[in-house]
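User: I'm putting together notes for a lab meeting next week and I want to include a structural view of one of the chains we've been expressing. I don't have a solved structure, so I'd like a prediction I can at least talk through. The sequence is below, exactly as it appears in our construct file.
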Amino acid sequence: MRGTTVLRASADGAVTIRRDPRGGLVVSGLGVREQIWHGPVCHASTSLGAASEDYLIARIEGSAGLTMTSSGEGGPLRLAADEDMRWESLQAASGHFGITGADLRRVRDVEIKINQGAKPGKGGRLAGAKVTPTVAKARNIPVGTDALSPDPKHDIYSIEDMPAEVWLWLLYSTYCGIKITGSNYTRYVAAGMWSNFVVDYLLIDAGTGGSGNYHGDSAHVGWPDAFRTVLHTHHALMGEKVDLDGSGLRVIRDANGVPFGASGGTRLLASGGLRGELDMLKVLIAGADGLVEGTIGKAAAFGCTQCGNCHLDCPRGGITTKQELTVQNDRGLMARRMRNWTALNMVKLAVLLDALNRESGALDADGAVARPELLLDDIRLLRGRTDLLEMPEWAAPDDEVGDDAAPAAPTLAAPTPDRKSVV
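Assistant: Thanks for the context. Below is the predicted structure for the 423-residue chain, given as structure tokens.
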């Protein structure tokens, strides 16, 4: 069988080109990474312990084949099926809980988490009540003991330290990205990354995101929204120039002149506080290449009451780690609901994109293409299209107005003609 499927091989046999029985060719071997095609919205990290194993596994199994799901910093979720495991993004945070070489050979993506919007500057604080035998085994701590992740990620103290960390994970032929908190300095970190080394994506996490694994004193201190953070970072990168290949200076990132993705291959992803598809659309327009979303709406389908105590414990079986409550979970039903949510999310984004095309005149009343030059036929074409938004314009400060006077109310800038505006 091997002789009939292998078409070409390198001299040392490390890289091969094989004929796939299902059709097409497969390149595999040392240094070869399989391309990952997925929807525009991936599922954000939720750690083992912060939520129940039933909920976390249902997220991956339900979304397999559609989009990637991050494991969170509590350790890898070891699924029985290798095909499902390939749709798990393994998060490497400050604790590096439970990560082994065997796990890295089963996943296709590693997310290096430096910090997170829900608790910037703080490591995870998992309450002892949520440390069950399963969690204790994954984190190598006693049952019922508070799990404290280190505040900083000691492997990385500067932009110069990042390449070594990235190359460590790339040795397993995985994709690799970096997750940081949105702040005033995000654009400088992004510019330093783009001009010094290439990583597959930079994930910017806003402060309105939640967590089931944090201390109350570290909540709500990050930048409040993903839109502003991505907008600032995208436009800062559009103004930076670097010579990547010796051909001369060129902008690191432009509005959309480089085929899908930033120049050099790095993508800009956003997460934190995305409450619906309209929020997602706005952040894509602000400059994101993709989104990572963990809204409570998905958990609500599993019995979430939105009590806001994820970091303490959950009274329902969907998120809690209490065995007396998890017995009510139906993992198969949870996986089907997650898949339905993922598919419906993409349908809603497609409907919004269609509405933009109708309002701009790109499509006529019958849905036929009327103006091809205005047509948005790929959601990635939204990147940086701020002309589609109505942006508030503040009046210039008046020197004659006293310090105690109320600031003038903002006005909405007029949208570009023939373009749909999203408020």
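A couple of points you could mention at the meeting. DSSP finds twelve helices and 17 strands in the chain. The first strand starts at residue 6 and ends at 9.

User: Perfect, that's what I needed.
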